[in-house]
Amino acid sequence: xxxINSNYLKLKAGYLFPEIARRxxxxxxxxxxxxxxxxxxxxxxEPLPRACCEAMKAAIDAxxxxxxxHGYGPEQGYSWLREAIAKQDFxxxxxxxxxxxxxxxxxxxxxxxxxLDILGEGNxxxxxxxxYPVYVDSNVMAGRTxxxxxxxxxxxxxxxxxxxxxxxxxxxxxEAADLIYLCFPNNPTGAVAxxxxxxxxxxxxxxxxxLILFDAAYEAFIQDPHxxxxxxxxxxxxxxxxxxxxxxxxxxxxxxxxxxxxxxxxLTGKAADGKQVELWQLWNRRQSTKFNGxxxxxxxxxxxxxxxxxxAQTKALVSFYMENAAIIRSELMTAGFTVYGxxxxxxxxxxxxxGLDSWGFFDHLxxxxxxxxxxxxxxxxxxxxxxxxxxFNSRVNVQxxxxxITSL
Length: 408
Ligand SMILES: *Cc1c(COP(=O)(O)O)cnc(C)c1O
Description:
Oligomer: single chain
Distance between the termini: 58 Å
Number of helices: 11
Strand content: 5-15%
Bound molecules: pyridoxal-5'-phosphate
Structural class: alpha/beta
Helix content: 25-40%
């Protein structure tokens, strides 16, 4: 009889988004005709930048010609894209990242999960609480955790609480961690890391021979030019960090799919026999065996992000969402809410009003304002008492949602 991967049975049966969908459906069924505004999901809403569309159209046309046809591409991605990324995202910011160290993929969600393929079973893992659920669930699936406790926390994972008390800056783990997931700008709290904050993490990782998995999917939303966009802006990070980037949020590629992961040469981990092994080699091997690259057309679309037009258009896209975030912040603050984030990230993290927990506030907004958000407790036990609103929506919807909430 075939056996299953029983680790999947440890998963808290997708409690967040299915539960939101259930409550929204129940409300809509009872109140037909009410138009709900969804500020809950982390998906973009604006169309693709013109430059990306043009590049993809030209690439499709080329694919229909004998001269321009492309079959299997390099598993690591085309060198013209890897070079544009290395130069414009890293070298221009003073980071020593080469094209060879960039692996193009179809998403940061998959990369941040798949990376566990090349990492050992015995690593002690640290995540923030609240956290992007993918980091936790992929470790559960890979058998790197124990069972979930009553409050949803998994045994043998180290949770680092982030909340208003510590200014959404996690303490360094008390027990040694080997693998640390960091996400800046942060989903869900909208917090951003200063250079000194990242320096503390890099110092910790180097002292403990730990690996930082740095998710920078929202780096394009950073507004303050002094804030770091990449972990590699920190001295020594090449010896202790892998970085995940994505075109999903800066260029609206959530449905188009393109991302990349940076694995520095010379970054090593320890094998069972004690030898130091380069992670680049393992990831290269993993991708070559299990992945066949992102399609040519989409890679041409991603390349167009780095053209002068693409740069201007993606900047405008990000500004549009950040204006939404500013509207959400200022309207809610004026109405007396305590809000965090939303200044360098498309998420505003709200303290729920006195007497309402995360789900209580969810129901309140759904039933009274017809606005759907995301309960903070869905991102982890320490997210209780908070609520996430996303800036990914049309201006009209954001403005009406704010009018509805502030006139409650
Ligand atoms: C949206 C998002 C990503 C991007 O994922 P893709 O698979 O590239 O679309 C990565 N990390 C976080 C925290 C996100 O919210």
